[in-house]
Write a structure and sequence with these properties.
Elements: E1 4-7, E2 10-22, H1 24-27, H2 33-37, E3 47-48, E4 51-63, E5 66-70, H3 89-95, E6 105-107, E7 120-121, E8 124-125, E9 131-135, H4 136-148, H5 156-160, E10 164-167, E11 172-174, E12 177-181, E13 190-196, E14 199-203, H6 227-244, E15 247-249, E16 258-264, E17 267-272
Parallel strand pairs: 5-6, 6-9, 9-10, 14-15
Antiparallel strand pairs: 1-2, 2-4, 3-4, 4-5, 7-8, 11-12, 12-13, 13-14, 15-16, 16-17
């Protein structure tokens, strides 16, 4: 599978900051072992020796002369809560032909630590030429954590530097890139829609963590702030991706995260590109 796809005139590059595994009961405590195991044959890459296997992923989009990165991963680390892992986002970017100084816009789908933590390096913006965008509702909701969590503290200093813009609703970042509200995982959670040359893709943030959720959108992870809202959001977005043929870019699916939603018998499935 390639780390790069084209959508109309846009180029989308998949980046991996970290590979992680967690006990199933931490992420999906309400899903039975039998239910989750029924998807193992379809998605073996998501089943690790220590449980749920996932990636902290980001995407770079080149659009209309701008270079945009969606989310910035777990950060350089070592991250104690993740067993001391160290993020490799910047090395992965460079290996795939993108330098930090190339980035014009950093847009966060939401403000959980595993999506914001490469914002700063040694107290300075990692992406020195970029304007950073954060969901306004998340900034209000998480402000206490943003000042206390060592990873999430990579957000507030940008505001003090005058480098952080907040957004809500649908916001046009380039003529081909628009934020779309997808709340539930967090209050301000948004996805990023790319529309170009008659083609579409969407970077979904944390709308889904495991591909079994495209078949069962009502299966919400423990970290959703409002599981009822997130389930409705997930259902609506999955149905839209299927009906409109939109390429999905899932930040937490192991591998590149590119795929389409399709029917396979009586199931709705994620088909990796």
């Amino acid at each position: 599978m390639s780390h790069k796809i084209t959508v109309g005139n846009c180029e989308i590059i998949s980046l991996t900051d970290a590979e992680m595994q967690f006990p199933w009961q931490i992420i999906f405590p309400s899903i039975s072992e039998a239910d989750r195991e029924s998807y193992r044959d379809l998605y073996p890459i998501c089943y690790g020796e220590r449980g749920f296997r996932t990636d902290a992923g980001s995407y770079v989009v080149r659009s209309s002369g701008k270079t945009v990165i969606v989310d910035t991963g777990v950060g350089p680390g070592p991250i104690a809560m993740l067993g001391g892992i160290e993020g490799k986002l910047i090395d992965d970017m460079k290996a795939k032909g993108v330098k930090p100084e190339d980035i014009d816009i950093v847009v966060h789908t939401h403000l959980h630590f595993d999506h914001v933590s490469w914002n700063l390096t040694d107290g300075k913006p990692t992406f020195p030429n970029a304007t950073y965008y954060a969901p306004e509702a998340d900034l209000s909701f998480f402000e206490t954590n943003l000042s206390q969590n060592p990873q999430m503290a990579a957000v507030l200093p940008l505001r003090d530097m005058g480098r952080l813009e907040t957004y809500s609703g649908e916001v046009t970042l380039t003529p081909e890139i628009t934020t779309i509200p997808t709340p539930g995982h967090t209050p301000g959670h948004s996805s990023v829609l790319i529309t170009s040359g008659g083609d579409k893709a969407v970077v979904t943030g944390d709308v889904a963590h495991h591909p079994m959720q495209v078949d069962h959108p009502e299966w919400s992870p423990a970290f959703d702030v409002d599981s009822t809202v997130s389930a409705a959001t997930r259902k609506a977005l999955v149905e839209r991706m299927e009906s409109e043929g939109i390429i999905a870019c899932f930040c937490h699916f192991p591998g590149e995260g590119f795929g389409r939603i399709a029917r396979q018998g009586n199931r709705r499935v994620f088909q990796a590109l």
